[in-house]
Amino acid sequence: METIKESHNQKKLLHIAMFPWLAYGHLMPFLQLSKFLAQKGHRISFISTPKNLHRLPTSSSLSPLIKLIELPMPVVDGLPESAESTSDVPINKVPYLKKAYDKLELPLTHCLEDLEVNWIVIDFASHWLPRVATRLGINSVYFTIFNATSMAFLGPPSEILGGERQQPEDFTVVPKWIDFPNYDVKYKLHEVITHWECMEEEVSDFQRVAAGIQGCDFVATRTCPEFDADSLSLLNKLYGKPVVPLGLLPPVLTDADGAEESEGDKWRSLREWLDNKKEKSVVYIALGTEVTLSREAMHELARGIEKSGLRFIWVLGNRQLAEAPDMIPVGFETRVGDRGLVWRGWAPQLRVLAHSSIGGFLTHCGWSSVIEALGFGRALILFSGASSDQGLIARLMHGKRVGLEIPRDDRDGSFSSDAVAKSIRQVMVEKEGETLRKNAWAMREIFGNLNLNNKYLDEFAKVLETWPTSTS
């Protein structure tokens, strides 16, 4: 007992730099981690470009120990002048964003020299940063916002860099190093081809990930053993260095900081609509801020939602609305007006998912969205956004029987409205979906368990505090 007290009293307070990739889905987990580490007394320098820092919901909830540091966004031919994030550009312009991110190497190096940090938390894209950290005598941890299953699919750095998988088709089979029973987590061809569009030619995403794994002191992943035990164990073997689960970083729904008021009329309007609906009778439909479907695909999805006959809220993001003026079929809203709500623009997703009227979630399978939904036990209708690891997450959740994947053509991603309607009904109301609903509800004990997830954050913090100091 005395030893524990002594070690607590002698805890080393650290200065930790954060350098996330230029996407909201990366910035937010890095900010959540920053807030937790600041609660432990550590100083945080959160480094990004001006526009990205201004987008963060910092307000009064940000600890004085967290300092936001701006690096000017580099100019790159082909990148729109105001673009600083993946949400600012179509997928085929993301390679230019990666070129700009790489040009931050020198200003970031000067910044780190001035800051005198103990650790830097790196993201997948900064393949050059472990080398810089080593030269400056800074420890580095590669924080992947992916779960361990997605990372295990990529394999060890040697395989990522020069393995047998060189063509999109090679990623549509389960890799040889994974031999778990009844395992079918792999990409569909259309998902790989879509992701290929956002890779930069000079330095591929695979090279970036491999450099991060190889160059860091250890890897941290957004998962926990209660959900991802086999893949976590495999990752430790594949990487030959420690892989530390951070927990799921579940978001906390609180009104203590006036959050509900700040969401204003938008949430009040949605809440009034939901308050009049029966428990678990509404399907929430949202495909994230960056997924875009063709007009034809949106119309087919709309027809499927209509055919399901169920109550729904369908959130259409600004990017989806910008694709074309008629992304929703003519007359659709009139026909479904008594049971459905089409919501344009941003919606307070966490509050919607928390409402007792929500029974299921038709999702693009972004990991943050899945974590939010399962935190409230909402069953999933899986419609992969065909980017990043979303396809792998769709297969994983389908395999764990907490959701059902909408059948789609492997090669082009096409689907039928009948398949959409059938999947929605099975997850929401049909007898054959009872197991899915029961399993999803049980997931609250993992995904919504703050004590469990904070335990892993505590363990991560202890690793940082006790790791030997780097020497340049």
End-to-end distance? 36 Å
Q: Strand content of the residues, in percent?
A: 5-15%
Mean pLDDT: 92
Helix content: 40-55%
Cα-based radius of gyration, to the nearest Å: 22 Å
Determine the structural class based on helices, strands and strand pairing. alpha/beta
Oligomer: single chain
Q: Which segments are poorly predicted (pLDDT under 50) over 5 or more consecutive residues?
A: 1-9
Task: Name the overall outline.
Answer: globular
Q: How is the largest sheet built, in terms of strand order?
A: 3-2-1-4-5-6-7
Largest sheet: 7 strands, parallel
Q: How many helices does DSSP assign?
A: 23
Structural commentary:
The chain is α/β, with parallel strands linked by helices and 472 residues long. The protein is built from 23 helices and 13 strands. The chain has a seven-stranded parallel sheet, sandwiched between helices. Strand 8 (282-286), helix 14 (295-308) and strand 9 (311-316) form a beta-alpha-beta unit. Helix 5 (105-115) packs parallel to helix 6, helix 7 runs parallel beside helix 11 (225-239) and helix 14 crosses helix 20 (417-428). The chain is globular and about 65 Å long. The chain starts with a helix and ends in a 6-residue tail after the last helix. Mean pLDDT is 92; it is low at 1-9.
Quick recap:
The protein is α/β, with parallel strands linked by helices. It has helices at residues 2-9, 24-39, 50-55, 94-102, 105-115, 129-136, 148-154, 157-162, 189-196, 205-215, 225-239, 259-262, 264-275, 295-308, 318-322, 332-336, 349-354, 367-375, 390-399, 417-428, 434-442, 444-447, 450-466; strands at residues 15-19, 43-48, 66-70, 119-122, 139-144, 218-221, 243-245, 282-286, 311-316, 340-344, 358-363, 379-382, 403-405.
